[in-house]
């Protein structure tokens, strides 16, 4: 695709910086300090889950924990608590592995279920817009900030976790890392190996909110109004 | 079309700010809350100074190699199906974006909060084409309905109370509800949802562009950035040319510094990282993507003693720490960039001519420098601005110029300054008469030759400020 006016622009910057243009060979220096590596350093997976649970309170997010066998029941209870009559989810391989496919079949009688299908094009968005609930897996989970990381692709639209009124994230225990540092490292290493980064990566920490009116915290603005995390051992 | 908001004189704007009781209360309470939240986060990390050091090193390296990283960024964006336009001026940026809008025959553009688009006057440029421009950040939307400029970088409608907001909604959008914030926000949600779904073009700013992958990262709480980057078929990013980092690893560090310093959150609800146009078979996201990289005066700062001003990550921590901002509010600065960073940056971007009062809108207490998460020496830059203004404008005799240089040296080392302001009252006693120094020693001598210098107060401002912080006053 086109790049316009670049050479004159960058030549000008180099001139102002008082040196010839740098087009290659720039390396990041070794930083004198690395405080980001110290946060929750050396914690066990269970300790990270504790940190995650604690942070959930700060971000107005319901925290639940179960194992694979218990997930179906916990998820059904959560859907009921949200009075979820319409649900949208990605076409994710983990739907089968974690029993979501079974649960959705069971709920189909009373609930509208839409699994993302790119061949249906904008129909996906239209459903997401009126859905009560979006349910996705977390790809990388950040304990410090209680953040789920979603790598979107053609089977996992961006609108699933964005347009419905409530959002449920299923968090496989092994996706939990101390903080954003580890997620950024994973992404950086993949890029260095020559992999293409996903077109859209969302780091989501609880429901949307705003403090724009007299600095009062309002939970639920453009995105979901409420959120639940379910950690699966 | 500029950084400048209006033509009213500085003294008038300051007076208006001081006389606006609601605004002053709102500002001081917001400052208190922001600062205490930031402090909680700093304490929890325990090694905040290391974080600041890392932030400063990252920004310094990136800006020193800006040509390299912008080249890498533009190559990557292009590879991912995006168009990149380098704009030397506001006009070039606006022209390019206008062309995109014209080609798309777009009737509605939805925007997320962006300082640089305010700076270049993009909304007016688009409206002149007949396109409707909708600001989607709640605070910005309120201001847009009311045709009012922002007064704070992070909380743009800080100067408005909920009753005023209710009136605006009622008058402009037929709202009939109460002034309960949740109800107001719910109304905005439904109104703006419709706008997101019908806009043909989305325009966002950029918190951090990632050179290695051509990715743009946005930091928001409301989710409006996710909306604007997901729903319209055409997406345009407008970025100030310095808003870039080498890799995801540096983005992560700066986002951590930004969210903590701006609002005292570990991360905001949404950190959104998007790269180019949507891929094959993806439904959400734009099929046409444009990145506009704006200079508009920034390159003049490169290679000068003010280069570190380009390290700014727009967190507003300096604004929240500033005792002058606390009293006069954001509008007094008459710049879309208020507070200490605004007082440093505005004259650099827009010239001293219209903004020569701004470097004086500071007590030089250094609270801004201490608050800055990337260690920009803000108050030292303000002193330097004053020197330049005095030299250039020839408004003061040479002796005062000399004194300012001595003062800068004396006040630029915190240890010396702290000690000397404590000692000064005692030490200056012999020269003090009725709390006025008429014939001062040392660095004061040149100054007092042409004017009197007030004797240092019994409690220095810094020690007063420190104590007030400790007492948790809001």
From TrEMBL, chain A:
Coiled coil: none
Domain of life per record: Bacteria
Signal sequence coordinates: none
Domain LUD per the UniProt entry, residue ranges: 49-232
InterPro entries: FTHF_cligase-like_sf (IPR024185), LUD_dom (IPR003741), LutC (IPR022823), NagB/RpiA_transferase-like (IPR037171)
Protein family per UniProt: Belongs to the LutC/YkgG family.
Its job: Is involved in L-lactate degradation and allows cells to grow with lactate as the sole carbon source.
HAMAP family with a match to the protein in the record: LutC (MF_02104)
Protein name per the record: Lactate utilization protein C
Gene that encodes it: lutC
């Amino acid at each position: 695709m086109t790049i316009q006016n670049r050479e004159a622009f960058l030549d000008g910057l180099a001139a102002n910086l008082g040196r010839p243009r740098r087009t290659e060979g720039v390396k990041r220096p070794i930083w004198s300090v690395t405080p980001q590596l110290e946060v929750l350093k050396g914690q066990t997976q269970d300790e990270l889950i504790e940190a995650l649970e604690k942070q959930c309170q700060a971000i107005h997010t319901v925290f639940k924990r179960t194992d694979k066998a218990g997930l179906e029941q916990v998820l059904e209870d959560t859907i009921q608590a949200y009075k979820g009559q319409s649900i949208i989810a990605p076409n994710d391989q983990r739907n089968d592995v974690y029993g979501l496919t079974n649960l959705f079949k069971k709920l189909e009688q009373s609930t509208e279920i839409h699994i993302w299908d790119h061949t249906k094009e904008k129909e996906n968005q239209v459903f997401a817009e009126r859905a009560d609930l979006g349910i996705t897996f977390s790809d990388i989970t950040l304990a410090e900030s209680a953040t789920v990381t979603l790598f979107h692709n053609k089977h996992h639209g961006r609108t699933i976790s964005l347009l419905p009124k409530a959002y449920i994230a299923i968090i496989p225990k092994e996706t939990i890392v101390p903080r954003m540092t580890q997620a950024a490292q994973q992404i950086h290493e993949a890029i260095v190996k020559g992999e293409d980064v996903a077109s859209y990566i969302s780091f989501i920490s609880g429901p949307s909110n705003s403090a724009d009116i007299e600095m009062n915290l309002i939970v639920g603005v453009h995105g979901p109004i409420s959120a639940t995390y379910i950690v699966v051992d | 079309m500029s950084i400048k908001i209006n033509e009213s004189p500085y003294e008038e704007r300051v007076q208006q700010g001081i006389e606006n009781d609601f605004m002053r209360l709102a500002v001081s309470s917001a400052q208190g809350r922001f600062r205490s939240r930031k402090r909680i986060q700093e304490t929890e990390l325990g090694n905040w100074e290391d974080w600041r050091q890392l932030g400063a090193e990252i920004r310094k390296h990136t800006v020193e190699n800006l040509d390299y990283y912008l080249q890498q960024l533009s190559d990557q964006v292009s590879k991912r199906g995006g168009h990149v336009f380098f704009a030397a001026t506001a006009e070039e940026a606006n022209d390019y974006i206008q062309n995109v809008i014209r080609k798309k025959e777009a009737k509605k553009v939805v925007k997320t909060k962006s300082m640089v688009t305010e700076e270049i006057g993009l909304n007016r440029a688009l409206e002149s084409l007949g396109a409707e421009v909708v600001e989607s950040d709640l605070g910005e939307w309120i201001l847009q309905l009311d045709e009012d400029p922002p007064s704070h970088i992070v909380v743009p409608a800080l100067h408005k109370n909920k009753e005023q907001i209710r009136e605006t909604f009622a008058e402009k959008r037929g709202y009939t509800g109460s002034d309960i914030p949740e109800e107001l926000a719910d109304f905005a949600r439904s109104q703006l949802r419709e706008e997101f779904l019908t806009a043909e073009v989305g325009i966002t700013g950029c918190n951090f562009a990632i050179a290695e992958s051509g990715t743009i990262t946005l930091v928001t709480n409301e989710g409006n950035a996710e909306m604007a980057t997901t729903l319209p078929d055409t997406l345009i990013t407008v970025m100030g040319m310095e808003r870039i980092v080498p890799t995801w690893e540096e983005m992560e560090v700066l986002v951590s510094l930004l969210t903590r310093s701006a609002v005292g959150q570990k991360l905001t609800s949404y950190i959104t990282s998007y790269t180019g146009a949507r891929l094959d078979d993806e439904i959400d996201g734009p099929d046409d993507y444009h990145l506009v990289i704006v200079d508009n005066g920034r390159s003049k700062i490169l290679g000068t003693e003010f280069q570190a001003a380009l390290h700014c990550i727009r967190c507003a921590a300096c604004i929240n720490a500033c005792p002058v901002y606390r009293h006069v509010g954001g509008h007094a600065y008459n710049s879309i960039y208020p507070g200490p960073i605004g007082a440093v940056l505005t004259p650099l971007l827009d010239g001293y001519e219209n903004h020569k009062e701004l470097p004086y809108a500071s007590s030089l207490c250094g609270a801004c420098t201490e608050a800055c998460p990337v260690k920009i020496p803000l108050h030292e830059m303000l002193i330097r601005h004053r020197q330049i203004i005095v030299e250039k404008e020839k408004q003061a005799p040479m002796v005062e110029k000399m004194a300012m240089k001595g003062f800068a040296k004396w006040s630029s080392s915190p240890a010396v300054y702290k000690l000397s302001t404590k000692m000064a009252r005692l030490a200056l006693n012999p020269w003090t008469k009725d709390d006025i120094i008429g014939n001062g020693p040392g660095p004061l001598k040149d100054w007092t030759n042409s004017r009197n210098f007030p004797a240092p107060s019994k409690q220095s401002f810094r020690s007063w400020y420190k104590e007030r912080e400790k007492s948790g006053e809001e």
